[in-house]
Write a structure and sequence with these properties.
about 375 residues, alpha/beta, Rossmann fold, six-stranded parallel beta sheet, 16 helices, about 50% helix, about 10% strand, globular
């Protein structure tokens, strides 16, 4: 396959090693036993390096939820009907979803990007101006195709979805230092499991979970469909000579979703802009894995918020060398687990910047 270069191939500046070293030295001087704040210390050090500063801060956090429907949903792999995708988009912009509540709590900017739903988005009562500010329509198609028997999307659609993810970062405030990507799409755990299987070289049984809470029989049915898609992709990939980047792009086209492609593009752009990226659950994490296969330097800007109940999540985080901050068996998606951790990142920065040193406090070291 001939190599073609796109915007997502652009170089990503690495986090500052000088600021990382200075942050480590500063932490060693604060009035506490070394390592006593554990992950809070590591967070502050990493944020200082990523932000290239001695005083890391969480400013104007941006939460973007990408929504799209999946063709495989018609095969009964979810406990909920596809109409829920559009209904939840309406709930997001009306302020009634968990991510809406958390965004308000942490004064984060929330945007919902509609990439294509099978059903029209219901109109909510309330401020039309507020809703229009939160919702960005970038419809690619009403749904992806059923990846169990054909490619989920065309190469052009995958590129378009990735570009919409990048565009979301370009719309974010210049003051933003933290990006959180969320997702909504009935049956998107099927796409995530399929992508995890091919990217991690795992058997489908190792990565297929219960999603929205399906029965054991439904899970078995779901796994068979995912396996059919994975086998179809494998045969197609074998007929070509692909590097990691090309294989990831092909996997996205064959097995992914518009919202997963958009998340992938958003993570690449966030890293290009030097913004810290806080991952949510299994969907956002598999999108990050794709992003790192396409542009490995993205990995330097990733942070993991929590370990979800989905079986594939731990393997994905391990492959990205990430340790989650929380392990609460959450599996809502939307970016909710990541948003919950904004306060932890803020606390890490506050302690790093404002805690007294031994010398300042007159305490023996």
């Amino acid at each position: 396959m001939p190599e073609t270069h796109y915007w997502f191939d652009q170089d990503i500046a690495p986090p500052s090693n000088d600021k990382r070293i200075k942050a480590e030295q500063h932490q060693s001087q604060l009035t506490k036993p070394a390592g006593s704040l554990s992950k809070l210390e590591a967070l502050a050090i990493e944020l200082a390096a990523q932000q290239n500063t001695n005083t890391p801060t969480i400013r104007a956090p941006q939460i973007t939820v990408f929504a799209a429907d999946h063709g495989i949903a018609e095969q009964g792999v979810s406990a909920f009907p596809q109409s829920v995708t559009a209904q939840m988009v309406s709930n997001f912009i009306a302020g009634g979803a968990a991510i809406s509540v958390l965004a308000k709590q942490f004064d984060a900017q929330l945007e919902v990007v509609n990439l294509g739903t099978c059903y029209p988005i219901p109109q909510q009562m309330g401020s039309e101006q507020e809703s229009s500010q939160r919702l960005h329509n970038a419809v690619i198609a009403s749904s992806t195709a059923d990846f169990s028997n054909q490619a989920a999307m065309s190469s052009e659609q995958a590129q378009q979805a990735m570009q919409e993810g990048a565009n979301a970062l370009d719309r974010a405030s210049l003051e933003c230092t933290l990006f959180i990507g969320g997702e909504m799409g009935i049956a998107n755990t099927s796409s995530a499991a399929a992508l995890a299987a091919v990217l991690l070289n795992k058997d489908v049984s190792e990565v297929c979970g219960y999603g929205t809470g399906i029965s054991e029989d439904a899970k078995s049915h779901k796994a068979k469909l995912i396996n059919a898609g994975v086998q179809r992709f494998t045969e197609k990939a074998k007929s070509q000579s692909l590097n990691d980047r090309q294989q990831a792009l092909l996997a996205l086209e064959e097995l992914g979703g518009f919202e997963i492609a958009a998340l992938c593009g958003a993570y690449i752009r966030a890293a290009q802009l030097g913004k810290s990226i806080l991952l949510d659950g299994v969907i956002s994490s598999v999108a990050a894995l794709l992003a790192c296969k396409i542009n490995p330097a993205v990995m330097q800007y990733l942070l993991a918020s929590h370990l979800s109940a989905e079986v594939a999540h731990k393997s994905i985080l391990d492959s990205l060398s990430l340790t989650p901050l929380l392990e609460w068996n959450m599996r809502l998606g939307e970016g909710s687990g990541a948003a919950l951790c904004i306060g932890l990142l803020e606390s890490a920065c506050q302690i790093h910047n404002n805690m007294a040193t031994f010398a300042e406090a007159g305490v023996s070291q």
